[in-house]
Amino acid sequence: MLDDFNRVVLSKDPLDEEDSDYINASYVDSILKPNAYIAAQGPNEYTISDFWRLIWEQQSFLIVMLTKVFDFIRVECCQYWPMEEHKPEMYGLIEVILLSEEHLADFVIRTMRIRKPGQLVKRKVKKTRLVPRNQYKEIEDKKPEMLDEDEQEQTVAKESIDRFRESKRSRLSVATRATQESLRSHSTNSVKNKSKKASFVTTTVYDEIEYEEEIEEDDVRIIYQLHYNSWSSHTCPFPNSILQFRRRVRIYQQEVNKDEGDRVGPTIVHCSNGCGRTGAYLCIDSNLQLAEEDGLY
Question: Is the pTM of this model over 0.90?
Fold first, then answer.
């Protein structure tokens, strides 16, 4: 591996020995970005929990694995992820759940969920809510509804007229006739005036407002492992195959950057010992990034 100036230093475990901050992993720059990768040795049975500490502390969401677990009769790398889907396993203080596996011709894509029980994180989430707004809408209608006062006046007028009609008096006094004419005139004018009035209907309108709210929740992360299993030790990969794999890695990098933003740490790349295949892949990836930047690829 490289010298100590770019060595990844883990946080010390207070319950472990003094050198618990060590892991065989180093930061590697790409041509366009410093510390774009972490080149690491494949975990063995003693370093699996340290490897998951590395992923957690460096906030890495993407793992590129370039070796088989078994190459003929030799163990190249320990299986550091759960055997069964949706069955949580603890690696040190990190809980790992395998969510899915997608098997393709030359590589496998695994989606995993990790968390550190008891560790909370504050996040700003966007929410929406409906805020009522009163809006008075003027409605022009050929037959508008009567207002309450007009209805009461018309009802009183009709009742008065009916009482006078039922009266058995043969003659009506002048005052009674005047009252009857007044009531009839008032009733007629009320209907005429009512037709000229515009009624107002109250409708409730809701405005959707977007706002941010800070919440505290478990720090749960979704990470992706792209496992290229067609590159045996001391051999060369098929060019089309490794380029297709690299394109898929780039797609996942873009999706992770879009979802997590500034939170995304370096991409972890490992083979068996973290040198040969890891270094070859980093050279391919960084130079193709430069060619893409210059519009040559």
Answer: no
